[in-house]
Amino acid sequence: MPLKKKILELKKKKEEVFQGGGEKAIAKQKAIGKLTARERIIALLDEDSFHEYDLFVEHEARDFGMESKVLHGDGVIIGTGTIYGAPVAIFAQDFTVAGGSLGLMHARKITKIMDHAMKMRIPLIGINDSGGARIQEGVNSLAGYGEIFYRNTMASGVIPQISVILGPCAGGAVYSPALTDFVFVVDNISNMFITGPDVIKTVLGEEISKEDLGGARVHSEVTGNAHFYAKSEEECFEQIKKLITYIPWNNSRKARRFEPKLPSKTIKIEDIVPDDPSKPYDVRDVICALVDDSEFFEVQEHWAANIVIGFGRLNGETIGFIANQPLVLAGVLDCDSSDKAARFIRYCDAFNIPIVTLEDLPGYLPGVDQEHAGVIRHGAKLLYAYSEATVPKITVIMRKAYGGGYIAMNSRHLRADFVFAWPTAEIAVMGPEGAANIIFRKEIMAAEDPDKLRQEKVQEYKDKFANPYVAAAKGYVDSVIEPSETRKFLLHAIEVSVNKEVDRPQRKHGVPPF
Amino acid sequence: MSKSKDNVIRGNHNDDFGLTTEMHEIVVQGSTYKTKLNRVYQNRKKWSNPDDNELFSFIPGTVVELLVKEGDSVNEGDPILLLEAMKMENTILAPKSCKVKKINVNIGERIPKGTLMMKFE
Fold this sequence. Notes:
The complex is a heterodimer of chains A (514) and B (121). Chain A has 514 residues and is an alpha/beta fold. Chain A has 21 helices and 17 strands. In chain A, strand 2 and strand 3 (86-93) form a beta hairpin. In chain B, the strands form four sheets. In chain B, strands 5-12-10-7 form a four-stranded antiparallel sheet, with no helix packed on it. In chain B, strand 3 (24-28) and strand 4 form a beta hairpin. The longest helix of chain B has 4 residues, at 39-42.
């Protein structure tokens, strides 16, 4: 056969595989606002950068009539490409082929590209759109999931792992995304749950829709399983591309350095934070006033919004920001916000991203529900993560830094490299009202006008302790700075921290309170 | 993501994601703060002291058998009810020696978790 003919034959074979699950299945996929697996990859990666592998892989199921069925690519597409020039490895499950179900060869394709990503030390992106295990392949599909989970774990903290949920992701399948660094979801398209609505109805008699049980909103707002929420697949891809610009290719590199830019001049940092410590403001405005081009890329925006986490740049370098949010629940620490911040700190630490903490919190959220939900062990995660991190760690105390919250928010005592405080900072064992009530309890109770004396004592305490100078006198605060000087101090602190080195005791690993 | 008039990049979702639009007061260590509340906080369960004269289901399931009737006296540890849940039969034992005042469930009835099944006195 001459070469020309052989090339024609190859083209024909490829065309056939590109049909995926056929016209009907593709029409069904489109009808609910979903792109096909191949369209998704093309939309996400740089133009013409995608190179596909294992196109001609065939499934191995030999029971239940499966042997005569053709499943193109065995329901998953794998390959490599680039995003803004950064190399990535990618897989995308194809729901049009046998519902994207995971059989032995399907799993082998995924693990092959995972191994490749690890060997080449490049980010891995997984697009999930699958009905789950391929029942006809029995324990082989379970083995497939296990092989994926193991690789997710081994790759954790070595290469960035991104999961994109663009369809169902149910049962055991949910644990691969859960083991990865960032999970992206799209409204009305993503579903994640261990047991679906049908099982819940049969076993428990409770009726709930897929969206209400494990839709994009639920995972973005209530469970914290998702990190980025989008209204459409297109918006989701824009978010992924943006994230890729903020993170390094692997744990032995730094994130790409951008051209330094000044923050927007329209935001005046000294006008954002009210003097009265009981008044709220949006701490994201402070971050925007500090970072290059006033561009802040928030992570887990809707879950545990009482703490804000995300990426911004200082002098072109990626920085992880952690900030108490007085606008929501007064910015208290609780189970969810501790959990959220702790995981983000560990991410930044693993990938050489310096951490800036903006502090303004009244303490921990009081309540039986919090105590019983384990705020002790969840709160401990935050202490652990800050103490453990060896990347540059800088804290800016803006207003309240009371009690346990003061210690937890990257204090000097947990080995912050730099602690700056604004003149409005109140660093104290507790708020003036609480403190006065305890210290002067007897006097207040015995007074003729207890309320008047209480007010006087609160004021006395405020004058003495509600400032940054007591902590500064002990060296717990390095510099008391004007709010407008904050960016300058941060830039310098980052600059002089580039060669930071700390020794850690020899150990296999610590035992953090997960 | 979009740039607003202040050149600030934020999510472009205007809906509240369970956040209240107005400010509420929250008290932490004697100080009062004005702030928004999220849905998780608003939906939290208020604590109430358990009443040992009330017997609640600890798991959803089907009542398979009632081993006592109203007015019966029981001793602590006596089997009083069989609840089938997750394909397992659970024998519910009397939590204390007492009299059965009221039975709120019937044989064959499927009940959710937290159902008040019996009252004692």
